[in-house]
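User: Show me a protein chain along with its predicted structure.
Assistant: Here is one chain, sequence first, then structure tokens.
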Amino acid sequence: MQTGPNTRLSTQAMAFVLAGGRGSRLKELTDRRAKPAVYFGGKARIIDFALSNALNSGIRKMAIATQYKAHSLIRHCQRGWGFFRAERNEYLDILPASQRVSESQWYLGTADAVTQNIDIVDSYGIKYVVVLAGDHVYKMDYEIMLRQHCETQADVTIGCLTVPRMEATAFGVMHVDADLRITDFLEKPADPPSIPGDPDHALASMGIYVFNWDLLRDLLIRDAADPNSSHDFGNDIIPQIVKHGKAMAHRFSDSCVKSGLETEPYWRDVGTLDAFWQANIDLTDFVPKLDIYDNAWPIWTYSEVLPPAKFIHNTDGRRGFAVSSLVAADCIVSGSEVSNSLLFTGCRTHSFSSLDCVVALPQVVVNRKAELSRCILDRGVIVPEGLVVGQDPEEDAKWFRRTESGIVLVTQDMLDARAAQLG
């Protein structure tokens, strides 16, 4: 396989997306769905960002490893990502943990998820594997990272965020030399090493790795035979390469896709209720930190055939309007006030209700005179008439999931339990 100056390396690469995570810090939002399948941004799912980045980068071969409560994720990928054509050498395979190695063994770790599918990766006939987490929100051109990987002749190239040094204690941190070669990989260090020439910042792992497939294949086979291994990229595979091979860091700022509106590289782990709410609400800003209106780098997803949003009633005290908000298709804002909020597809808000800083997932119904602020409404929730959320912390915590910062998660099960107790 020849690599010349005009060859797009993405045509020789596949994306292996790790999408098996439960996302337990999202609490009830992941009771019925895996974290990568959680809704985001009005109509998309979190996994759409990793898949869209790969597609926009020119990668046409992808595999998605699923494990925890994968049905909604698999259904979304079948419906929204079913446009790959094998006759054009395009593939998107969904790889559920299916006891392919033994009758008792599911995916034991991130590396094992690839190991159990070595034969499938072999069948793609590719040279490079881009390993991705399926649960982060960002825009990135992987072709740029692949180029660096080849130019530096690295064994692994790791995507890295530049973060304030003491914030890096929550990440895997790269200790690098002046050429960005990784000399040490530290998992959640108490005293993170700084970037050479930049004492206030550190390089934190994004969980994005580029490997030459032939090398990774050998490493995975050896790792699978090691009874002491946790079969994880961050704990086992990467430290081995840092110690015995050549591991390079790739700065996210070098390949982050910005439309011109974004002023700085945007990457978010929306793995907590606070982070999930904030990242969605951020999209309602006058100039959002993440531009999802960039047609040059679209976020692909399952697009349903739906009617436009509608706003009705126009009398004082009963005016249907939304300001500083995102309102998706098939929403009807009927005589209610919506501000700084994000309504996913198919929501209904009825007369005299108000929503402020609300993230409402698909098919939510807000009945009359409800007053909602700083909350997340799970899919299909039917908010009863007159419910007040976001004004009384004690009352919120009594019935719903309330975070320390005051964000309230409301699910239908919580509302049903409340109704049963109140009679």
